[in-house]
Amino acid sequence: MALSGMRGLSVFISDIRNCQNKEQERLRVDKELGNIRTRFKNEKGLTPYEKKKYVWKMLYIHMLGYDVDFGHMETVSLISAPKYPEKQVGYIVTACLLNENHDFLRLAINTVRNDIIGRNETFQCLALTMVGNIGGREFAESLAPDVQKLLISSSCRPLVRKKAALCLLRLYRKNPDVVNVDGWADRMAQLLDERDLGVLTSSMSLLVALVSNNHEAYWSCLPKCVKTLERLARNQDIPQEYTYYGIPSPWLQVKTMRALQYFPTIEDPNTRRSLFEVLQRILMGTDVVKNVNKNNASHAVLFEALSLVMHLDAEKEMMSQCVALLGKFIAVREPNIRYLGLENMTRMLMVTDVQDIIKRHQAQIITSLKDPDISIRRRALDLLYGMCDISNAKDIVEELLQYLSTSDFAMREELSLKAAILAEKFAPDLSWYVDVILQLIDKAGDFVSDDIWFRVVQFVTNNDDLQPYAAAKAREYLDKPAIHETMVKVSAYLLGEYSHFLARRPGCSPKEIFSIIHEKLPTVSMSTVPILLSTYAKILMHTQPPEPELQNQIWAIFHKYESCIDVEIQQRAVEYFALSAKGAALADILAEMPKFPERQSALIKKAEDIETDTAEQSAIKLRAQQQMSNALVVTDQRPANGTPPVSQLTLVKLPSISSNSDNYSADEGARQENGTLTRVDPQPPSADLLGDLLDPLAIEGPPGAVQSEQNVPGVDGVPSAADTAAIVPIEEQKNTVQPIGNIAERFHALCLKDSGVLYEDPHIQIGIKAEWRAHHGRLVLFLGNKNTSPLVSVQALILPPSHLKTELSLVPDTIPPRAQVQCPLEVVNLRPSRDVAVLDFSYKFGSHAVNIKLRLPAVLNKFLQPLTLTADEFFPQWRSLSGPPLKLQEVIRGVRPLPLLEMANLLNSFRVMVCPGLDPNPNNLVASTTFYSESTRAMLCLVRIETDPADRTQLRMTVSSGDPTLTFELKEYIKEQLVDIPTSSPPPPMAPSVASPMAPVPPLNDPGAFLAGLL
Amino acid sequence: MIHFVLLISRQGKVRLTKWYSAYPQKERTKVIREISGEVLSRGPKLCNFVEWRGLKVVYRRYASLYFCMCINQDDNELEVLEIIHHYVETLDRYFGSVCELDLIFNFHKAYYILDELLLAGELQESSKKTVARLIAGQDALVETAKEEANSISNIIAQASK
After folding, report:
1. How many other β-carbons are positioned within 10 Å of the β-carbon of residue B101?
2. Residue B83: its chain A contacts at CB < 8 A?
3. Which of A701, A714, A807, A959 is the most buried (most CB within 10 A)?
4. Which residue of B has its CA nearest to A347?
5. Out of B16, B78, B130, whose CB is closest to A198?
6. Which residues in chain B touch residue A338, judged by CB atoms under 8 angstroms apart?
7. Nearest CA in chain A to B32
8. Are the CB atoms for A622 and A817 separated by under 8 Å?
């Protein structure tokens, strides 16, 4: 097929194709770019045809991957060409070359709008297509209402309306705050009656976006969706051209079922029945056929139906049908179906009562773990991980370990992490856990992060029964010819601590242990040497009276490292050498490590962080949490000054407290002996009994204690490591729950936008999403539990100032693990005021009660509606409001100096709209806005700011409105914003100290104290 | 939602790119490189989905050309796979047994057709007949404009003789 006359373009493409190598291609491209650049420079000489040709060439070059950093202007300017061919090229190439944020797009907005509201249908289509593909915020602001009009216009043909629907979808998806969809439910319901399937398909996509954001408003669309689905499923009245391989538009079917999944449930029994009939028909009536495309299309529908059934939580019978289908799918040869079978089975795990049926397919799933296709292997791994519980953990983990030796590198890291987590979560007994991790290190040492082996050390240290076993295992691995460095670390550590339990076994005398470990020394890196030195010191300590030969050997090594360039190694060598000369005291100094306090597994935390927070995964985790084995709960055996730890669920044998205390007194002795050692113990007995009791976290340790864990094995075992690292655990112990991020900054950010995080700490995240309509506000608090255990005694109270009427919906007492709870909060603004509502929020995590008081961003500016006035509208108003108390003027000093433009932006950001060009003096700003409250209703406010170009720290501000209180409050509000932007806040006295990033982060219970003053 | 569409030849040459999510220029090049690496290296009898950066690439090979569409993880994969086929059939109908060369030299046509099929990363029209009719209409408009231009330049040429 010949190119429509653009010979130059064809020639250029041929040239590129004839290039022998990349270098030639680059030369040819550069030549062309040079040519285009010169031609564009003398733009006057260009015919529309040539312009078109060059613009296409630019797109071609761009597609080849070269930077095209000029000519954008020419491309955009084609959009305003009067003739269709140029306009078409302008629109299409602009949409391909430029991003939504490109400055040049702004230049085109007017033309685009004229095309959209104009009468020319083809132009409308071009404009809608471009905006639908790349339209950003400014397009949404200026075009959304026009696009909405087109979509529901009865005089527009389907080809325009379907584009309008998707164009609106784009604008809404990108900027839901700009596109006003109030009252759109009825219109959407009407659109769902549409006969043209093109328009219906596009409208359904739009509906999906709308309901995903707010299903409440669109209940009226639900029956219509079911009707549409019925119509399609029964193939009633579907034009031939809209069937695809005999299936009535599979895409529309999928979209419709997707929309239905955003409604939490279907209340109306008739609608529900009709829907289930359709679903049943899809589930039962989808057969595998020869034709690939038909098969894909029908299964696209089937899988969507499966999701919908799962979502609706159908009767048990239908559910087991679904599981049966999925069981069939994961065994078929067709890879796509198998992939999707595995994927959907993983989703299915969140549905209760089917796990047992899924478990029956375990063998089949394990086969897929060995599939040649990595996509399928990944799905199989995920599913195995999700379905693992205490009953099948052994099988699954062993399968993963076996697979580890043959798996490809791309998956090994994920595989070993998952195996380690499952082993930890569901271990039937601890020796098995140790086995698994050691095998893991042996087989995939490179992929076993430090967290994993630190964790083994913790378990072994805290469980006396385990110690001889672990030491023996470590000893076995050392016999292997080439072992991974991580294995050297972990076995050296374990043998250093516990090899004396093995002393009577063959090959386990201190001397033999020493020499087999020492064999590895030449092969290890600097980071392992300190651990080996500690091991040697421990071995020495365990051979009392010393064997002279062994002692000399070890001393020689210490001596050798005394001049090591690495300061850690050097320090250890020097100190161990000196200590080992102390004879009997050595036994105290290097005594066995004390138990570790219980802490959340860094590993599990890491896995949680990695996983994207989708509902299905959290559901899986929820289940995992419920069935978790107790075998591995590490007990905190520290006698908290005589108070034994309470309510520790544990299967681990607790050694008697007295022996434990001995352990501590030995440590104490060591401390007294050597003043520098005071900081070694990660949990020094607190001198202040009260303080210890009042500080519940001292027992639990913050879940985020990764850092201290990393310090654990290397540092704690070594008295000499009283360095900076060793101090960390102590500091951490003193800390309480710290908010993450600056609370005041978060509040201020939320004053200017409508969604974001209000508060976060290691356990909870409180997010806010707000909508404001006139004097009403609807906020939704998102309370997200970040932990794998529930937050209890959750309480939220709103302490409203007198001018706000608030109503908070019920807040549940418990937030389940990894779950998010949404609590709507209605706000009504009664009258103008700058006071702020406070959220008094508390919860309990473990034994730890947390109470925080947070300012809510329901501030004055939220009840403003920006308004741009023309000079004709502004000045009469300005003059009519004369003098106090309706018009107030103040000279403000100490203003944070801002360029005028930034000040204008600042005003705009809190919805006081600057009207440019109204004030003849360029140093002045004039702005207007509408304020809404129950007492004032909609009230116009006018602001004028006169700045002094010579001194930006002062200005004169005049504010006027029809209500004296409003005038005063607004004036004060703007003043606060201008005087001190980062820390300004309506209630002045205490807040800045919270806000200042330099101030120490307030401890857990204190924000309340800070904020109490605000009330 | 489809985030982008890529047409890549077996040799890794890019034949068409369309971005529905905002990827800056540099990122685009990187994405194309990564996707080519992932997709082109896959053997024949594997599934049509590749997981990539928390998203999914649905791809299908036609002769020497790979059609790739990148979607969200929870989107319906098979539906998108058939959007690809729907696009190919539409191209086929337009060009009459389409081959890679058609798409190389008429890449702009491939864009026109794609714009009638997809918008905002969603399927816009599932009837091949409707798309064919719309594209024919556009072609006619361009043709008419060309004829007009020709006749005007003829008149001018004649007049200036």
Report:
1. 12
2. 251
3. A959
4. B74
5. B130
6. 47
7. A65
8. yes
d(CA A31, CA A12): 11
The letter for the amino acid at A659 is: S
Considering CB atoms only, which of B15, B78, B129 is closest to A296? B78
Cβ atoms within 10 A of the Cβ of B158, count? Answer: 8
Report the distance separating Cα A990 and Cα A553, nearest Å.
Answer: 65
Cβ–Cβ of A162/B125 closer than 8 Å?
yes
Nearest CA in chain A to B134: A159
Residue in B18, B96, B105 closest to A13 by CB: B105
pLDDT tier at A674, thresholds 50, 70, 90: very low
Q: A-chain residues within 8 Å CB-CB of B128?
A: 241
**A510 with A546: CB under 8 angstroms?**
no
| Cα–Cα dist A309/A277, whole Å | 11
The two domains A722-858 and A864-1013 share their CATH topology (first three levels equal): no
Taking an 8 Å cut-off on Cβ atoms, the answer to whether A336 and B130 are in contact is no
What pLDDT sits at residue A608? 64
Among A96, A335, A614, the residue with its CB nearest the CB of B18 is A96
Rama region for A984: left / alpha / beta (φ>0; ψ in -120 to 50; rest): beta
Closest partner residue to B78 among A249, A336, A612, by Cβ?
A336
pLDDT tens, position by position, A137-171: 999 999 999 999 999 998 999 999 999 999 999 99
Q: Measure B18 CA to nearest chain A CA, in Å.
A: 6
- The ipTM (two decimal places) reads 0.95
Q: Which two tokens stand for residue A639?
A: 């006698």
CA distances from A550 to A451, A462, A505 (A): 33, 30, 19
Q: Would you list the DSSP string of chain B?
A: -EEEEEEEETTS-EEEEEESS---HHHHHHHHHHHHHHHHT--TTS-SEEEETTEEEEEEEETTEEEEEEEETTS-HHHHHHHHHHHHHHHHHHHTS--HHHHHHTHHHHHHHHHHHEETTEE----HHHHHHHHHHHHHHHHHHHHHHHHHHHHHHHHH-
Give residue A311's Cα distance to chain centre.
Answer: 23
| Closest-CA residue of chain B to A16 | B104
For residues A564 and A1002, the model is more confident at A564
- Chain A residues within an 8 Å CB radius of B73: 614
Torsion of CA A785, A791, A793, A799, to 10 degrees: -20
Lowest mean pLDDT of A6-10, A306-310, A661-665, name the range. A661-665
Per-residue model confidence (pLDDT) at position A903: 85
Report if pTM > 0.90: no
Please name the residue of chain B whose CA is at the shortest distance from the CA of residue A58.
B108
Structural domain spans, chain A: 722-858, 864-1013
Distance from the B132 Cα atom to the nearest Cα atom in chain A, whole angstroms: 12
Count of CB atoms within 10 A of residue A661's CB? 15
Give chain A positions within 8 Å (CB) of B112. 88, 92
Q: Which residues of B touch A99 (CB under 8 A)?
A: 19, 22-25
Q: Of A28-37, A342-351, A533-542, where does the model show the most confidence?
A: A28-37
- Architecture label for domain A864-1013: 2-Layer Sandwich (3.30)
Cβ-Cβ pairs closer than 8 A, A with B, add up to 187
Domain A722-858 falls under CATH 2.60.40.1230: yes
* Known binding residues of A: 7-8, 49, 53-57
| Of A978, A930, A940, nearest in space to A962 by CA | A940
Q: Convert the pLDDT of each residue in A176-215 to its tens digit.
A: 999 998 889 999 999 999 999 999 999 999 999 999 988 8
At A734-775, the pLDDT tens digits run 346 778 888 888 888 888 888 888 888 888 888 888 888 888
- How far apart are alpha carbons B128 and B90 in whole angstroms? 6
- Residue A424 is predicted with a pLDDT of 86
